[in-house]
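Q: Predict the assembly, please.
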Amino acid sequence: MKSFGYLRPDSVQEAVEAYAAHPGARYLAGGTNLVDLMKLGVERPAVLIDVGRLPLDTIEELPDGSLRAGATVRNSDLAADPRVRDRYPALSQALLAGASGQLRNAATTGGNLLQRTRCPYFQDLDKPCNKREPGSGCSALDGVHRDHAVLGHSPHCIATQPSDMAVALAALDAQVELYGTEGTRRLPAAEFHRLPGEHPERDTWIRPGELITGVLLPAGTAGVPSAYRKARDRASYAFALASVAVVLRVADGVVDQAGIAFGGLAHRPWRARHAELALLGAHATPAAFEGAVDLELMHAEPLRDNAYKVSLAHNLALDVLNRLAPAPAAA
Amino acid sequence: MTSANKPAPDSEITLRVNGKPHTLHIDNRRTLLDLLREDLGLTGSKKGCDHGQCGACTVLADGRRVNSCLLLAVALDGSEITTVEGLGGDGEEPHPLQRAFLDRDAFQCGYCTPGQICSAIGMIAEAAAGHPSQVTDPATPSGRPVPLDRSEIRERLSGNLCRCGAYPRIVEAVEDVIR
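A: Predicted assembly structure:
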Protein backbone atom coordinates (compact mmCIF):
# COMPACT_ATOMS: atom_id res chain seq x y z
CA MET A 1 0.00 0.00 0.00
CA LYS A 2 1.23 3.47 -0.86
CA SER A 3 1.95 5.75 2.10
CA PHE A 4 -0.74 8.36 2.80
CA GLY A 5 -1.54 11.27 5.10
CA TYR A 6 -4.64 11.08 7.28
CA LEU A 7 -7.07 13.87 8.11
CA ARG A 8 -10.19 13.71 10.26
CA PRO A 9 -12.26 16.87 9.77
CA ASP A 10 -14.96 17.75 12.29
CA SER A 11 -17.62 18.92 9.83
CA VAL A 12 -18.85 18.42 6.29
CA GLN A 13 -17.60 21.89 5.43
CA GLU A 14 -14.11 21.09 6.75
CA ALA A 15 -14.11 17.82 4.82
CA VAL A 16 -14.86 19.56 1.54
CA GLU A 17 -12.20 22.19 2.31
CA ALA A 18 -9.70 19.44 3.06
CA TYR A 19 -10.35 17.96 -0.37
CA ALA A 20 -9.87 21.35 -2.00
CA ALA A 21 -6.49 21.56 -0.28
CA HIS A 22 -5.58 18.00 -1.32
CA PRO A 23 -7.04 17.27 -4.75
CA GLY A 24 -6.99 13.56 -5.49
CA ALA A 25 -7.56 12.68 -1.85
CA ARG A 26 -10.14 10.03 -1.04
CA TYR A 27 -12.91 10.23 1.51
CA LEU A 28 -12.77 7.29 3.95
CA ALA A 29 -15.83 6.01 5.82
CA GLY A 30 -16.25 2.28 6.51
CA GLY A 31 -13.33 1.53 4.20
CA THR A 32 -14.56 -1.96 3.32
CA ASN A 33 -13.97 -1.37 -0.39
CA LEU A 34 -11.47 1.51 -0.40
CA VAL A 35 -8.95 -0.10 1.98
CA ASP A 36 -9.13 -3.31 -0.03
CA LEU A 37 -8.47 -1.42 -3.27
CA MET A 38 -5.55 0.39 -1.61
CA LYS A 39 -4.06 -2.97 -0.64
CA LEU A 40 -4.42 -4.11 -4.25
CA GLY A 41 -2.80 -0.90 -5.53
CA VAL A 42 -5.89 0.04 -7.55
CA GLU A 43 -6.36 3.11 -5.33
CA ARG A 44 -3.24 5.08 -4.40
CA PRO A 45 -4.41 8.26 -2.64
CA ALA A 46 -1.81 10.55 -1.09
CA VAL A 47 -4.32 11.69 1.54
CA LEU A 48 -7.32 10.07 3.20
CA ILE A 49 -10.03 12.33 4.59
CA ASP A 50 -11.87 10.35 7.27
CA VAL A 51 -15.58 11.25 7.17
CA GLY A 52 -16.66 8.19 9.14
CA ARG A 53 -17.27 10.13 12.35
CA LEU A 54 -19.07 13.13 10.87
CA PRO A 55 -22.52 13.68 12.39
CA LEU A 56 -24.26 12.07 9.42
CA ASP A 57 -25.22 8.88 11.22
CA THR A 58 -28.92 9.43 11.86
CA ILE A 59 -32.14 8.47 10.11
CA GLU A 60 -34.75 11.19 10.39
CA GLU A 61 -38.28 11.83 9.23
CA LEU A 62 -38.80 15.02 7.24
CA PRO A 63 -42.00 17.11 7.32
CA ASP A 64 -43.00 16.02 3.80
CA GLY A 65 -43.19 12.38 4.88
CA SER A 66 -39.85 11.37 3.42
CA LEU A 67 -37.08 9.65 5.34
CA ARG A 68 -33.49 10.88 5.26
CA ALA A 69 -30.65 8.45 5.98
CA GLY A 70 -27.31 10.12 6.70
CA ALA A 71 -24.29 9.08 4.67
CA THR A 72 -22.49 7.39 7.57
CA VAL A 73 -25.43 5.30 8.77
CA ARG A 74 -24.07 1.77 8.79
CA ASN A 75 -25.67 -0.68 6.35
CA SER A 76 -26.72 -2.94 9.24
CA ASP A 77 -28.45 -0.06 11.05
CA LEU A 78 -30.25 1.12 7.91
CA ALA A 79 -31.50 -2.41 7.22
CA ALA A 80 -32.75 -2.82 10.80
CA ASP A 81 -34.48 0.55 11.14
CA PRO A 82 -38.18 -0.14 11.79
CA ARG A 83 -39.27 2.72 9.49
CA VAL A 84 -37.15 1.38 6.64
CA ARG A 85 -38.40 -2.16 7.20
CA ASP A 86 -42.03 -1.09 7.35
CA ARG A 87 -42.11 1.54 4.57
CA TYR A 88 -39.32 0.51 2.19
CA PRO A 89 -38.97 -3.27 2.60
CA ALA A 90 -37.05 -3.61 -0.71
CA LEU A 91 -34.28 -1.44 0.74
CA SER A 92 -33.95 -3.44 3.94
CA GLN A 93 -34.00 -6.71 1.96
CA ALA A 94 -31.40 -5.46 -0.52
CA LEU A 95 -29.04 -4.40 2.26
CA LEU A 96 -29.42 -7.75 4.02
CA ALA A 97 -28.76 -9.60 0.75
CA GLY A 98 -25.38 -7.87 0.44
CA ALA A 99 -22.01 -8.72 1.97
CA SER A 100 -21.75 -10.25 5.47
CA GLY A 101 -22.76 -9.18 8.97
CA GLN A 102 -19.24 -7.93 9.65
CA LEU A 103 -19.07 -5.87 6.47
CA ARG A 104 -22.55 -4.40 6.96
CA ASN A 105 -21.48 -3.22 10.42
CA ALA A 106 -18.67 -1.17 8.88
CA ALA A 107 -20.01 -0.19 5.45
CA THR A 108 -21.91 3.09 5.18
CA THR A 109 -24.78 4.37 3.07
CA GLY A 110 -22.53 6.77 1.15
CA GLY A 111 -19.72 4.26 0.74
CA ASN A 112 -22.05 1.56 -0.50
CA LEU A 113 -23.10 3.83 -3.39
CA LEU A 114 -19.47 4.52 -4.29
CA GLN A 115 -18.16 0.96 -4.21
CA ARG A 116 -16.28 -0.03 -7.34
CA THR A 117 -16.97 -2.93 -9.67
CA ARG A 118 -15.74 -6.38 -8.67
CA CYS A 119 -14.61 -7.10 -12.26
CA PRO A 120 -11.47 -9.20 -11.67
CA TYR A 121 -9.57 -7.35 -14.39
CA PHE A 122 -10.24 -4.02 -12.69
CA GLN A 123 -8.62 -5.42 -9.54
CA ASP A 124 -5.63 -6.94 -11.34
CA LEU A 125 -2.87 -4.40 -12.05
CA ASP A 126 -1.26 -6.75 -14.56
CA LYS A 127 -4.26 -6.63 -16.90
CA PRO A 128 -5.48 -3.83 -19.18
CA CYS A 129 -8.62 -2.13 -17.87
CA ASN A 130 -10.17 1.08 -19.18
CA LYS A 131 -11.83 1.76 -15.86
CA ARG A 132 -8.57 1.59 -13.93
CA GLU A 133 -6.32 2.95 -16.64
CA PRO A 134 -8.23 4.79 -19.39
CA GLY A 135 -7.19 3.80 -22.89
CA SER A 136 -5.48 0.56 -21.86
CA GLY A 137 -8.26 -1.70 -23.17
CA CYS A 138 -10.85 -4.06 -21.73
CA SER A 139 -9.63 -7.52 -20.76
CA ALA A 140 -13.12 -8.78 -19.98
CA LEU A 141 -14.52 -8.36 -23.52
CA ASP A 142 -12.76 -11.51 -24.70
CA GLY A 143 -11.98 -12.83 -21.23
CA VAL A 144 -13.97 -14.37 -18.40
CA HIS A 145 -17.18 -12.35 -18.37
CA ARG A 146 -20.04 -14.50 -17.18
CA ASP A 147 -20.59 -12.00 -14.31
CA HIS A 148 -20.58 -8.97 -16.59
CA ALA A 149 -23.15 -6.65 -18.15
CA VAL A 150 -25.91 -7.46 -20.62
CA LEU A 151 -27.42 -3.96 -20.79
CA GLY A 152 -25.92 -0.55 -21.51
CA HIS A 153 -22.32 -1.73 -21.84
CA SER A 154 -19.83 -0.26 -24.29
CA PRO A 155 -16.79 -1.54 -26.21
CA HIS A 156 -14.74 0.20 -23.52
CA CYS A 157 -16.20 -1.48 -20.44
CA ILE A 158 -18.61 -4.30 -19.63
CA ALA A 159 -18.33 -4.13 -15.83
CA THR A 160 -21.36 -4.16 -13.54
CA GLN A 161 -22.15 -2.01 -10.54
CA PRO A 162 -22.07 -4.36 -7.52
CA SER A 163 -24.31 -2.61 -4.96
CA ASP A 164 -27.58 -4.26 -3.94
CA MET A 165 -28.62 -1.19 -1.96
CA ALA A 166 -28.33 1.07 -5.03
CA VAL A 167 -30.78 -1.13 -6.95
CA ALA A 168 -33.44 -0.76 -4.27
CA LEU A 169 -32.82 2.99 -4.03
CA ALA A 170 -33.27 3.31 -7.81
CA ALA A 171 -36.60 1.47 -7.77
CA LEU A 172 -37.80 3.47 -4.75
CA ASP A 173 -37.20 6.86 -6.45
CA ALA A 174 -34.66 7.77 -3.77
CA GLN A 175 -32.40 10.81 -4.14
CA VAL A 176 -28.71 11.12 -3.34
CA GLU A 177 -27.78 14.29 -1.47
CA LEU A 178 -24.38 15.78 -2.27
CA TYR A 179 -22.38 18.61 -0.77
CA GLY A 180 -19.53 20.39 -2.49
CA THR A 181 -17.91 23.78 -2.89
CA GLU A 182 -20.96 24.86 -4.90
CA GLY A 183 -23.36 23.86 -2.13
CA THR A 184 -25.95 21.11 -1.82
CA ARG A 185 -27.57 19.32 -4.74
CA ARG A 186 -29.58 16.17 -5.23
CA LEU A 187 -29.47 13.49 -7.90
CA PRO A 188 -32.04 10.73 -8.45
CA ALA A 189 -30.53 7.45 -7.25
CA ALA A 190 -31.51 5.90 -10.59
CA GLU A 191 -29.34 8.48 -12.39
CA PHE A 192 -26.48 8.65 -9.89
CA HIS A 193 -24.37 5.99 -11.62
CA ARG A 194 -23.28 6.40 -15.25
CA LEU A 195 -23.23 4.06 -18.19
CA PRO A 196 -19.63 3.38 -19.21
CA GLY A 197 -19.67 4.92 -22.70
CA GLU A 198 -16.21 6.22 -23.51
CA HIS A 199 -15.43 7.07 -19.89
CA PRO A 200 -15.74 3.96 -17.76
CA GLU A 201 -13.26 5.47 -15.29
CA ARG A 202 -16.17 7.56 -14.03
CA ASP A 203 -18.64 5.42 -12.11
CA THR A 204 -21.03 8.20 -11.10
CA TRP A 205 -22.00 11.81 -11.77
CA ILE A 206 -20.39 12.96 -8.52
CA ARG A 207 -18.01 15.92 -9.01
CA PRO A 208 -14.44 15.90 -7.71
CA GLY A 209 -14.48 16.69 -3.99
CA GLU A 210 -18.23 16.36 -3.60
CA LEU A 211 -19.29 14.38 -0.56
CA ILE A 212 -22.41 12.27 -0.24
CA THR A 213 -24.21 13.55 2.85
CA GLY A 214 -27.32 11.39 2.75
CA VAL A 215 -30.02 9.56 0.89
CA LEU A 216 -33.65 10.69 0.73
CA LEU A 217 -36.42 8.12 0.60
CA PRO A 218 -39.51 9.85 -0.78
CA ALA A 219 -43.01 9.88 0.67
CA GLY A 220 -44.30 8.73 -2.73
CA THR A 221 -43.00 5.19 -2.32
CA ALA A 222 -43.38 4.95 1.47
CA GLY A 223 -45.61 2.04 2.37
CA VAL A 224 -46.02 0.92 -1.25
CA PRO A 225 -45.45 -2.86 -1.46
CA SER A 226 -41.85 -3.54 -2.50
CA ALA A 227 -39.39 -6.41 -2.49
CA TYR A 228 -35.87 -7.35 -3.55
CA ARG A 229 -34.70 -10.69 -4.89
CA LYS A 230 -31.15 -11.65 -5.77
CA ALA A 231 -29.63 -14.66 -7.54
CA ARG A 232 -26.01 -15.60 -6.88
CA ASP A 233 -23.60 -18.50 -7.04
CA ARG A 234 -24.09 -19.43 -3.38
CA ALA A 235 -26.92 -18.85 -0.92
CA SER A 236 -25.24 -16.01 0.93
CA TYR A 237 -22.24 -13.68 0.89
CA ALA A 238 -21.78 -13.29 -2.87
CA PHE A 239 -22.43 -10.58 -5.42
CA ALA A 240 -25.50 -10.69 -7.62
CA LEU A 241 -25.51 -12.47 -10.94
CA ALA A 242 -28.85 -10.75 -11.37
CA SER A 243 -31.22 -9.09 -8.95
CA VAL A 244 -34.40 -7.06 -9.03
CA ALA A 245 -36.12 -4.50 -6.84
CA VAL A 246 -39.82 -3.95 -7.46
CA VAL A 247 -42.19 -1.31 -6.10
CA LEU A 248 -45.76 -2.11 -7.11
CA ARG A 249 -49.13 -0.68 -6.20
CA VAL A 250 -52.30 -2.18 -7.61
CA ALA A 251 -55.76 -0.63 -7.18
CA ASP A 252 -58.90 -2.46 -8.32
CA GLY A 253 -56.76 -4.93 -10.24
CA VAL A 254 -54.95 -2.19 -12.18
CA VAL A 255 -51.31 -1.14 -11.74
CA ASP A 256 -51.18 2.49 -10.65
CA GLN A 257 -47.56 2.66 -9.52
CA ALA A 258 -44.55 0.62 -10.67
CA GLY A 259 -40.82 0.96 -10.05
CA ILE A 260 -38.57 -1.82 -11.31
CA ALA A 261 -34.78 -1.86 -11.20
CA PHE A 262 -32.36 -4.64 -12.09
CA GLY A 263 -28.97 -5.25 -10.47
CA GLY A 264 -26.02 -7.22 -11.80
CA LEU A 265 -26.93 -6.47 -15.40
CA ALA A 266 -25.33 -3.11 -16.08
CA HIS A 267 -22.85 -0.42 -15.09
CA ARG A 268 -25.60 1.12 -13.02
CA PRO A 269 -28.85 -0.06 -11.44
CA TRP A 270 -31.03 -0.61 -14.49
CA ARG A 271 -34.34 1.17 -14.05
CA ALA A 272 -36.79 -0.69 -16.29
CA ARG A 273 -38.68 2.31 -17.67
CA HIS A 274 -40.07 0.43 -20.68
CA ALA A 275 -41.56 -2.22 -18.43
CA GLU A 276 -42.95 0.36 -16.02
CA LEU A 277 -44.66 2.31 -18.81
CA ALA A 278 -46.21 -0.85 -20.16
CA LEU A 279 -47.55 -1.76 -16.73
CA LEU A 280 -49.03 1.57 -15.70
CA GLY A 281 -52.78 1.32 -16.17
CA ALA A 282 -52.60 -2.34 -17.15
CA HIS A 283 -54.40 -5.14 -15.36
CA ALA A 284 -52.03 -6.76 -12.91
CA THR A 285 -51.95 -10.21 -14.47
CA PRO A 286 -49.05 -12.64 -14.94
CA ALA A 287 -49.35 -12.16 -18.70
CA ALA A 288 -49.10 -8.39 -18.39
CA PHE A 289 -46.06 -8.71 -16.15
CA GLU A 290 -44.37 -11.06 -18.58
CA GLY A 291 -45.06 -8.81 -21.55
CA ALA A 292 -43.68 -5.79 -19.69
CA VAL A 293 -40.52 -7.53 -18.53
CA ASP A 294 -39.88 -8.87 -22.04
CA LEU A 295 -40.30 -5.36 -23.43
CA GLU A 296 -37.42 -4.26 -21.19
CA LEU A 297 -35.10 -7.22 -21.63
CA MET A 298 -35.44 -7.24 -25.42
CA HIS A 299 -32.84 -4.46 -25.24
CA ALA A 300 -30.30 -6.82 -23.69
CA GLU A 301 -27.10 -7.47 -25.64
CA PRO A 302 -25.52 -10.45 -23.91
CA LEU A 303 -21.84 -11.23 -24.29
CA ARG A 304 -20.39 -14.57 -25.38
CA ASP A 305 -20.81 -16.21 -21.97
CA ASN A 306 -23.57 -14.42 -20.06
CA ALA A 307 -26.82 -14.82 -22.00
CA TYR A 308 -28.11 -16.78 -19.00
CA LYS A 309 -28.50 -13.46 -17.17
CA VAL A 310 -31.37 -12.38 -19.41
CA SER A 311 -33.60 -15.32 -18.56
CA LEU A 312 -32.44 -15.20 -14.93
CA ALA A 313 -33.45 -11.55 -14.63
CA HIS A 314 -36.73 -12.28 -16.45
CA ASN A 315 -37.64 -15.03 -13.98
CA LEU A 316 -36.61 -13.01 -10.92
CA ALA A 317 -38.71 -10.04 -12.00
CA LEU A 318 -41.78 -12.16 -12.75
CA ASP A 319 -41.50 -13.91 -9.41
CA VAL A 320 -41.36 -10.65 -7.47
CA LEU A 321 -44.08 -8.92 -9.52
CA ASN A 322 -46.47 -11.83 -9.11
CA ARG A 323 -45.68 -12.04 -5.41
CA LEU A 324 -46.36 -8.34 -4.85
CA ALA A 325 -49.58 -8.25 -6.87
CA PRO A 326 -52.63 -8.86 -4.73
CA ALA A 327 -54.53 -12.03 -5.56
CA PRO A 328 -57.44 -11.19 -7.91
CA ALA A 329 -60.79 -10.91 -6.19
CA ALA A 330 -63.02 -13.96 -6.63
CA ALA A 331 -65.45 -13.47 -9.51
CA MET B 1 1.50 22.14 -3.04
CA THR B 2 4.55 22.10 -0.77
CA SER B 3 5.40 18.99 1.15
CA ALA B 4 4.82 20.91 4.37
CA ASN B 5 1.13 20.92 3.54
CA LYS B 6 0.94 17.18 3.30
CA PRO B 7 -0.28 15.49 6.46
CA ALA B 8 2.13 13.05 8.13
CA PRO B 9 2.18 9.41 7.05
CA ASP B 10 2.07 8.25 10.68
CA SER B 11 -0.09 8.94 13.72
CA GLU B 12 -0.38 8.36 17.44
CA ILE B 13 -3.51 6.52 18.56
CA THR B 14 -4.94 5.04 21.73
CA LEU B 15 -6.98 1.86 21.69
CA ARG B 16 -8.43 -0.16 24.53
CA VAL B 17 -7.80 -3.78 23.68
CA ASN B 18 -9.39 -6.42 25.90
CA GLY B 19 -9.82 -3.78 28.58
CA LYS B 20 -6.24 -2.45 28.54
CA PRO B 21 -5.31 0.93 27.06
CA HIS B 22 -2.50 1.02 24.48
CA THR B 23 -1.00 4.18 23.03
CA LEU B 24 0.86 3.43 19.83
CA HIS B 25 2.76 5.32 17.16
CA ILE B 26 1.71 3.77 13.88
CA ASP B 27 2.14 4.05 10.14
CA ASN B 28 -1.24 5.17 8.75
CA ARG B 29 -1.25 2.02 6.62
CA ARG B 30 -1.45 -0.23 9.69
CA THR B 31 -4.62 -2.31 9.71
CA LEU B 32 -6.23 -3.24 13.00
CA LEU B 33 -5.39 -6.89 12.31
CA ASP B 34 -1.68 -6.23 11.82
CA LEU B 35 -1.62 -3.96 14.87
CA LEU B 36 -3.14 -6.69 17.02
CA ARG B 37 -0.88 -9.44 15.73
CA GLU B 38 2.41 -7.62 15.12
CA ASP B 39 2.40 -4.74 17.61
CA LEU B 40 0.48 -6.29 20.51
CA GLY B 41 1.34 -9.96 19.98
CA LEU B 42 -2.34 -10.94 20.02
CA THR B 43 -2.14 -13.62 17.36
CA GLY B 44 -5.55 -15.15 18.07
CA SER B 45 -7.11 -13.06 15.31
CA LYS B 46 -6.08 -14.74 12.08
CA LYS B 47 -5.07 -13.45 8.67
CA GLY B 48 -6.84 -15.62 6.11
CA CYS B 49 -7.52 -13.72 2.90
CA ASP B 50 -6.65 -10.18 4.13
CA HIS B 51 -9.43 -8.89 1.85
CA GLY B 52 -12.60 -9.18 3.94
CA GLN B 53 -13.72 -12.37 2.25
CA CYS B 54 -13.10 -15.07 4.87
CA GLY B 55 -13.90 -13.65 8.32
CA ALA B 56 -10.89 -15.21 10.10
CA CYS B 57 -9.87 -11.75 11.36
CA THR B 58 -13.24 -10.95 12.97
CA VAL B 59 -13.05 -8.99 16.24
CA LEU B 60 -15.47 -6.79 18.16
CA ALA B 61 -14.98 -3.02 17.79
CA ASP B 62 -17.12 -1.07 20.26
CA GLY B 63 -19.15 -4.25 20.65
CA ARG B 64 -19.83 -4.85 16.95
CA ARG B 65 -18.26 -7.58 14.86
CA VAL B 66 -16.01 -6.33 12.08
CA ASN B 67 -13.28 -7.58 9.75
CA SER B 68 -10.09 -6.25 11.34
CA CYS B 69 -8.13 -6.70 8.09
CA LEU B 70 -10.14 -3.95 6.37
CA LEU B 71 -10.02 -1.40 9.19
CA LEU B 72 -7.25 1.17 9.33
CA ALA B 73 -6.07 1.45 12.93
CA VAL B 74 -5.64 5.22 12.58
CA ALA B 75 -9.38 5.58 12.01
CA LEU B 76 -10.16 3.64 15.22
CA ASP B 77 -8.42 6.00 17.66
CA GLY B 78 -10.34 5.80 20.96
CA SER B 79 -12.12 2.55 20.16
CA GLU B 80 -12.66 -0.45 22.42
CA ILE B 81 -11.51 -3.68 20.79
CA THR B 82 -12.23 -7.21 21.98
CA THR B 83 -10.34 -10.12 20.47
CA VAL B 84 -10.69 -13.83 21.07
CA GLU B 85 -8.05 -13.49 23.82
CA GLY B 86 -10.34 -11.14 25.75
CA LEU B 87 -13.61 -13.06 25.58
CA GLY B 88 -13.11 -14.96 28.81
CA GLY B 89 -12.52 -11.77 30.78
CA ASP B 90 -9.86 -11.75 33.49
CA GLY B 91 -10.49 -15.27 34.73
CA GLU B 92 -9.14 -18.58 33.51
CA GLU B 93 -12.56 -19.75 32.41
CA PRO B 94 -13.26 -19.61 28.68
CA HIS B 95 -16.31 -17.80 27.32
CA PRO B 96 -19.34 -20.13 27.19
CA LEU B 97 -19.16 -20.16 23.38
CA GLN B 98 -15.48 -21.18 23.49
CA ARG B 99 -16.52 -24.01 25.83
CA ALA B 100 -19.32 -24.99 23.45
CA PHE B 101 -16.87 -25.13 20.50
CA LEU B 102 -14.72 -27.54 22.55
CA ASP B 103 -17.69 -29.63 23.66
CA ARG B 104 -19.07 -29.87 20.11
CA ASP B 105 -15.69 -30.38 18.43
CA ALA B 106 -16.67 -27.43 16.22
CA PHE B 107 -13.37 -27.20 14.32
CA GLN B 108 -10.70 -29.25 12.65
CA CYS B 109 -7.62 -27.14 11.89
CA GLY B 110 -8.92 -24.29 14.08
CA TYR B 111 -7.69 -21.46 11.90
CA CYS B 112 -11.13 -19.93 11.39
CA THR B 113 -12.25 -20.58 14.98
CA PRO B 114 -11.36 -17.26 16.66
CA GLY B 115 -13.19 -15.41 13.89
CA GLN B 116 -16.15 -17.77 14.06
CA ILE B 117 -16.46 -17.25 17.81
CA CYS B 118 -16.13 -13.47 17.73
CA SER B 119 -18.57 -13.33 14.83
CA ALA B 120 -21.10 -15.54 16.62
CA ILE B 121 -20.94 -13.41 19.77
CA GLY B 122 -21.55 -10.26 17.72
CA MET B 123 -24.31 -11.99 15.78
CA ILE B 124 -26.15 -13.17 18.91
CA ALA B 125 -26.17 -9.59 20.20
CA GLU B 126 -27.47 -8.30 16.85
CA ALA B 127 -30.37 -10.76 16.83
CA ALA B 128 -31.18 -9.89 20.46
CA ALA B 129 -31.29 -6.21 19.46
CA GLY B 130 -33.86 -7.02 16.77
CA HIS B 131 -31.63 -6.87 13.69
CA PRO B 132 -33.20 -8.94 10.90
CA SER B 133 -31.27 -11.10 8.45
CA GLN B 134 -31.92 -12.08 4.85
CA VAL B 135 -33.86 -15.17 6.02
CA THR B 136 -35.92 -13.41 8.68
CA ASP B 137 -39.64 -13.47 7.85
CA PRO B 138 -40.45 -9.88 6.79
CA ALA B 139 -43.59 -10.13 8.95
CA THR B 140 -41.44 -10.42 12.11
CA PRO B 141 -42.16 -7.32 14.18
CA SER B 142 -39.43 -4.66 14.11
CA GLY B 143 -37.39 -4.02 17.21
CA ARG B 144 -38.10 -7.36 18.89
CA PRO B 145 -35.42 -10.04 19.39
CA VAL B 146 -35.18 -12.37 16.38
CA PRO B 147 -35.26 -16.07 17.34
CA LEU B 148 -32.18 -17.87 15.99
CA ASP B 149 -33.11 -21.10 14.26
CA ARG B 150 -30.57 -23.02 12.19
CA SER B 151 -31.21 -21.13 8.98
CA GLU B 152 -30.76 -17.82 10.83
CA ILE B 153 -27.47 -18.98 12.37
CA ARG B 154 -26.16 -20.21 9.03
CA GLU B 155 -27.12 -17.02 7.20
CA ARG B 156 -25.78 -14.70 9.89
CA LEU B 157 -22.44 -16.53 10.04
CA SER B 158 -22.02 -16.68 6.25
CA GLY B 159 -19.19 -14.15 6.49
CA ASN B 160 -17.00 -16.75 8.22
CA LEU B 161 -15.63 -19.44 5.95
CA CYS B 162 -14.39 -22.81 7.27
CA ARG B 163 -12.33 -24.67 4.69
CA CYS B 164 -12.47 -27.82 6.84
CA GLY B 165 -16.25 -27.75 6.59
CA ALA B 166 -17.04 -27.86 10.31
CA TYR B 167 -20.22 -25.85 9.76
CA PRO B 168 -22.72 -28.36 11.22
CA ARG B 169 -20.82 -28.46 14.54
CA ILE B 170 -20.37 -24.69 14.57
CA VAL B 171 -24.14 -24.28 14.28
CA GLU B 172 -24.63 -26.78 17.12
CA ALA B 173 -22.15 -24.92 19.34
CA VAL B 174 -24.01 -21.65 18.77
CA GLU B 175 -27.32 -23.38 19.51
CA ASP B 176 -25.88 -24.59 22.83
CA VAL B 177 -25.25 -21.06 24.09
CA ILE B 178 -28.50 -19.45 22.94
CA ARG B 179 -30.75 -22.05 24.56
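Residues 96-178 of chain B form a domain with the DNA polymerase; domain 1 fold (CATH 1.10.150.120). Residues 106 and 169 of chain B are 5 Å apart (CA to CA).
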